[in-house]
């Protein structure tokens, strides 16, 4: 879910404040309330990334209200109301979110929880909340170290350009994973003063555990549906794992040359290194109903889709492995909204494993064993119909998941008119 931003850095900070920070430094050429932090972390961030600031970074203070207002504006600008409504419908139809959830209201509450600071690419300034309470002060150092990496990135890569991407949730999530992953990795490496593999016993799994243990300090995050929690953490933790492998494999080059094209490449560094690109599924016009929204999930959210229903991490990860591309369309139909989701797979075996897991997920959601054949399986219940069908699209095995209100036909698209293109959109 690409519009989850800026929150996990604070969660990670809360989890890691028990770790030792490196020694302080003389403020020197910096001024203002954060001069010592700047003097300490600017050279360390430069050394860790192998890049130097072209112009000195700026840090300013803002009130809590000003920071919250900025985050709300950023949220609204990056995800207009109609796009947010379309995404909300899609995730509700896929079982990720409760039907009654007001996603915008919840996200604004989540964005406003424990606001410490942020880097704004538009003004080129790192803003920190002017709050001297002990609870916030312990997090400011972590925030400054993290956001300084973003300030440095922005001098070599246009961070604003990431948020302007549309209709490719998976690619944008992968790109955000690089930027947030690098900021997290270098923030921790500078604060811990060494190789994270040595300095962090238990690695990133332990960090995840620490964040879970600290959820009580983040009540809005703790109450969030699994999708929001996991997509919030993915760019930071899985992104940092990606950066760890990137630095070992490609020392001396920035990790956005090139950016990964999919969350599959983030999860499987060997596929990124090999240049294995996802395919783009091009959906034909709907046969019935009106299109409301169109996007994709990617391998990571496909895993979450299965885990949401099956609660089995191993099965979910294995069954999403072999993902090659996907696309879904939300439609207004008589009686309510429906969705058709097409996923394509590296091999027929991969498609078959996903189909079996998806059928188990449908059975649990709908409360019945279903009917039909292995090629077309139909599940009915709770006023809905789910159909899972196999197909072949330009030689690739595909699975078509359709969910519609009862009384509607399940043939929302002509599968024979599905097309595939490479990541750049070339057939």
Give the arrangement of secondary structure elements:
Layout: H1 8-16, H2 35-49, E1 58-62, H3 64-78, H4 81-93, H5 103-111, E2 117-120, E3 125-129, H6 134-154, H7 159-163, H8 169-192, H9 196-199, H10 203-213, H11 219-222, H12 226-249, H13 263-267, H14 269-273, E4 280-282, E5 290-295, H15 298-310, H16 313-320, E6 323-333, E7 336-345, H17 348-366, E8 371-372, E9 376-381, E10 384-393, E11 396-405, E12 419-421
Parallel strand pairs: 1-3
Antiparallel strand pairs: 2-3, 4-12, 5-6, 6-7, 7-11, 8-9, 9-10, 10-11
Total E-strand runs: 12
Q: What is the share of helical residues?
A: 40-55%
Helix segment tally:
17
Distance between the termini: 27 Å
- Secondary-structure-based class equals alpha+beta
Mean pLDDT: 87
Strand proportion, as a percent range, falls in 15-25%
Tell me the count of domains.
Answer: 2
Q: How do the helices and strands follow one another from N- to C-terminus? A: HHEHHHEEHHHHHHHHHEEHHEEHEEEEE
- Largest beta sheet, briefly? 7 strands, antiparallel
Could you characterize what this model shows?
- With 427 residues, this protein is an alpha+beta fold.
- It has 2 domains: 8-273, no CATH class; 280-421, no CATH class.
- 48% of the residues lie in helices and 18% in strands.
- The strands form 3 sheets. The chain has a 7-stranded antiparallel beta sheet, with helices on one face.
- Helix 1 (8-16) packs across helix 10, helix 8 (169-192) packs across helix 12 (226-249) and helix 15 (298-310) packs across helix 17 (348-366).
- The radius of gyration is 22 Å and the shape is globular.
- The chain starts with 7 loop residues before the first helix and ends in a 6-residue tail after the last strand.
- The model has no long low-confidence stretch (mean pLDDT 87).
